[in-house]
Task: structure prediction
Amino acid sequence: MESLSDPKNPNSGRTVVLVTDPARLPEFQGVATRFGKRVGVRYGSVSFDFPGTSLALVGGVGPGVGCLGSLSLPADYVTNPFKHRYQPAHREGFDIGRQITFKFDGSPGSSLQNAPGYGVQTLSGTYKETISGLHKIPLKVEGSVVLSRISQVDKLNNSN
Result:
């Protein structure tokens, strides 16, 4: 989306804005033209279901560092996978807890270490998650992750 540097002057400079809050979409203009109308470009990603539009993580993002956080999906949350309005046995879900950890490669020999833009445009590493509430013991999953930078914009929903 785009924002005018001076909202009162339609000829003022424009800045690119990443919008994550659907309530703020009317404040911005699109960056692409489709059928004669300016529209925004939609980016998709893996979905982590939690209330709100952002989740604070502890740590950092970059070569050789990592971050972690936790989120919970209450039993009565609308997108709880075990809740179903039309099935009487599934009127309420389970409280689900998720502990997530990202550890990014940074040592010599990592798969993308010598690739152009590594640490700036692309980061690889390991993703680990512990899920509680679905089984009597916590479930642990682990796999590789690659993050690709799609924008240089460093603030979300920023109209200035």
